[in-house]
Design a protein that fits this description.
The protein is mostly helical and about 90 residues long. It has one domain. The protein is about 50% helix and about 0% strand. The chain has helices at about 5-15, 30-35, 40-55, 65, 70-85. Helix 3 runs antiparallel to helix 5. The longest helix is centred in the middle third of the chain and has 13 residues, at about 40-55. Bound molecules: zinc ion. Zinc ion binds next to loops.
């Protein structure tokens, strides 16, 4: 179940998304950076935004709403991509 910020942080922590490491794009790597800003995931983020927009959301979607039930599948897809593909190949 993904019902709030706490679970979200826990989910990311389990996948070893550190809050302290530097991202390959040069920014501080944390969940918010990866989801909202990181240039490594622009394409995947745009796919997520498109799907969320179709469900009535407006980007940027607050972290607390990213774990809404009606976004669950789409968000997991995005997070899985972020945590699987650590960064796009140069
Ligand atoms: Zn980055």
């Amino acid at each position: 179940m993904f019902t709030g910020h706490g679970n979200f942080q826990e989910y990311l922590a389990k996948r070893q998304l550190s809050d302290t490491a530097n991202c390959s794009c040069g920014e501080i790597k944390n969940p918010a950076h990866l989801i909202y800003n990181c240039i490594n995931y622009t394409r995947d983020r745009e796919i997520f935004i498109m799907k969320a927009t179709l469900k009535g959301y407006t980007w940027p979607i607050p972290i607390a709403q990213l774990t809404n039930k009606d976004l669950h599948d789409e968000f997991i897809t995005l997070i899985t991509t972020i945590t699987t593909i650590k960064e796009n190949a140069p």
